[in-house]
Design a protein that fits this description.
The complex is a heterodimer of chains A (about 120) and B (about 800). In chain A, about 70% of the residues lie in helices and about 0% in strands. Chain A is mostly helical and about 120 residues long. Chain A has one domain. Chain B folds into 2 domains: about 475 residues, Cytochrome C Oxidase, Chain A, CATH 1.20.210.10; about 160 residues, Up-down Bundle (Four Helix Bundle (Hemerythrin (Met), subunit A)), CATH 1.20.120. Helices cover about 65% and strands about 0% of the residues of chain B. Chain B contains 24 helices and 4 strands. In chain B, α1 runs antiparallel to α2, α5 packs antiparallel against α6 and α5 crosses α19. The longest helix of chain B is centred in the N-terminal third of the chain and has 35 residues. The radius of gyration of chain B is 27 Å and the shape is globular. In chain B, about 60% of the residues are buried. Classes of the chains: A mainly alpha (about 120), B mainly alpha (about 800).
Amino acid sequence: MRYPRIIDDGSVWIVIVPPLIWALHFLAAYWIAAVWCAREAGSLTPAAWSIIVLTILALVAISLIGRVAAVRYGGFTRPGRESAGDTQADRRQFLGHVALLLCVLNAAAVMMTAIPSVMFGRC
Amino acid sequence: MAAWQPPAGWRRISAVNNSLIGKWYLLTAFAFFGFAGVLALLIRTQLAVPDNDFLSMRFYNQVFTLHGTAMMFLFAIPIFEAVAILILPEMLGARDLPFPRLSAFGFWCFAIGGVFVCGSILFDAAPDGGWFMYPPLSSDPGQTGIGTDIWLLGLSFIEVASIAAAIELIVGVLKCRPPGMRINLMPLYCWYVLVVAGMILFAFPPLIAGDLLLEMERAFGWAFFDADRGGDPLLWQHLFWIFGHPEVYIIFLPSIALIATMLPALSRAPVVGHSWVVLSAIGVAFLSFGLWVHHMFTTGLPDISLGFFSAASEAVAIPTGIQIFCLLATLLVGRAKLSVPLLFAGGALAVFVFGGLTGVMVAVVPFDYQAHDSYFVVAHLHYTLIGGMLFPVFAAVCYWYPFVTDRVLSERLGRWSFWLIFAGFNITFLPMHWTGILGMPRRVWTYAEEMGWHGLNLTSTIGSYILAAGIAVLAFDVLRPKGRQSPAPADPWGAPTLEWAREVPRRPWGIRSVPVISSRYPLWQQPGLANEVLRGEWFLSDSPDADREMIVTDILDARPMFVQRVPGPGFVTILAAASLGAVFILATFHLWLAAVLAGAVFLVATLRWLWTGAGGLPSAPTRDCGRGLVLPLYASGNGSVGWWAMFITMIGDSTAFAGLVFAYVFFWTLHGSFPPPGTAPPAAVTLWLGTALLAGSWGMLVAASAAMSRRVVALCCCALAPLPAGAGVAVLAGAAWSAGLDPTRHAYDATVWVLTLWIGAHVAGGIVMQLYSWARLLARHMDADHDAELRNTVLYWNFLIVQAAATFALIGLFPLVSGGVP
């Protein structure tokens, strides 16, 4: 008998990817700024622009995942739905909902990470 | 079912049942808590009045260092493992965890390491550099004595126990759920265990890497943290806090999980927003890895870097708040009765929210500049840790006490202890916010009367004794004999989770029979289930071979896959833990030869443990589990629990490796030229040859796995694979050697050598595994259909090859593109 693998359709990868995008964006922003400040120590503008571009890319990626998650969940808001039934459809909806919520959280976190690069002119 | 009976008499220490190991783990962790609590009282007594000399300055340093160390490493983290080992299998309707001997091994490592670290204070040799052990103070053996080595090696040893528990718990949650418990029906506690065990896997290894670097500097003079030789003390702070901040959440999340598990039973209502709570657990887990620099706001990093970490520190408040609101909403919609566990849970939420809010304050960089290293931070961290961990754990003690002992705790003593603890705690720590704002730095031995801190300090000291009195009342209630009390009812709280479908008196086999689950709150929503379970009407109610057996299911939908045989009691795990402990302890005292001998004993013990485990060929291909469910008795590859354990172990291992890579890149960022001017990196061609030889060994192993149906070919491949592996390591070391790199000269040389050493040690382990597979094949414990050991070895080598290739890229190629020698 074959079992659905955790990377198959309807499974957990959409839960992991949004926070992973945040983590990669965060690390990239940190490294760009750290290396830039260690080497150049002058104006931050080029580093800030690359962080802003990365931020836009990260937000686009998160919204794409969010779309997949919303399809799994069956919409964006479905109050009262518990996804607590004993069916594969419930499991899909549940993971879709968790992923959708994580997309929102991580989009917010990515934007918060980007704020300092807009605010600071120098290291 | 007699197979599950633990041995009697003194041999009971060889038991591996989760019910016993969990209980011992819990009691040991609480013993260390009591010890560290006494140290806290000593600190408070010393600080009660100005210019006090109750403790000498030297002893005071040891006391506060050991207080922090023991509370964090010997209580707060292990208590998560202890509670999970104790209740998780039963909550999952499983007989035990998938690797009972690993749990036992972890427990013995923890106990031995803990006694070693704590015992040092009796010999005036305790660590005294503060619980985060910053160099250059800690890297200079002239300034900090043997205590620092005890800290580094003792705690590294204890981290082995934590990682062992993390592996065990992840596989337990993923693969040992009862049939039908799909991932959307899994109790919240299991989600938290999964998330936290995953965090341990990514948080602890950087500290192990840091410990390795710091100990190499202390013992052999390798240059990592010495600025004169190209090192940087800040590297330690990075590695420590990459561990240290997630660790706070590793402590907090499982305790919130306990509240989330108790609340439905105590308020008679399902948790509001199940998927929101799962979201916040996962969200906190990730975000918590982006906070580490907020412990380093005053180290002179660029402002913009501080900004990133400040932003992440504020962002983590969002998911944390969601959890708290979900729990409060559950309380509101339910019909809660103010029982003792609920009192503690309520106290937890109140105290934690207070600590969380001061956390948001210190996450703001300008405020942190003012409050850093003051008693304000001491107050903040105690509010988060005691509110986020101690109160929930006390709630859990009251709630699960009947589950563990078949007796109930006294309601009256419980209320007394709660109010004493709650009042004592606030009297102790609330004034510390002001003491900090008034400028009192943490860790000072004493202070002058003119500073004006004495009134607040005296209040704190009085509060700490009230707090201690409350804990003493609770401890008395837990430990007092209750022989004459009649047994508690099976499910005294009317709880919904499976662990309460239990037999009274408690039996050693976990659940009586393994049911099919079709709801989130099975004992509420599947009427009659508990009785069916207890009558043995469900799966695996007995074993014809008198083996210890459990059902393994798939990760997403918990469909039964096979029956796993698990090993019974054995002294071999104790021997393995004791000999590994001896390696670390002897190394502390630089008794290298004896440490190597102990290492050999550890190797033999581990091999014997594996050889005599339950992994051999089964007596029959399938097992009839009852109700017409027939399952295979063997699995290998990515269906088996062993493969997953190896996979998870190697993820953790790769994280430690990433810590070393971080060190290299950190130094590269720091220096204008890395390698430094005048130093030639090892020859890329030679490094390439060494890596290619390792790849050859890996290829032979893959060939052996593919050729299992032709036994002679597989045997030859396994037997010959160590040769290119050994040669590869020799070539890699030769490259560093012939480049004239001396690890005591410069951070570059030291980093290259430590990476080479890392790969060498892993290849040594890989060769042992190759030879082990060969021996298993030779002894006919493996054949074409039963090849779990070999496939696990291949998996190990997959990771090893990636690490070797990364090392080659970093040492061999990176200097060519990044401008090595100017």
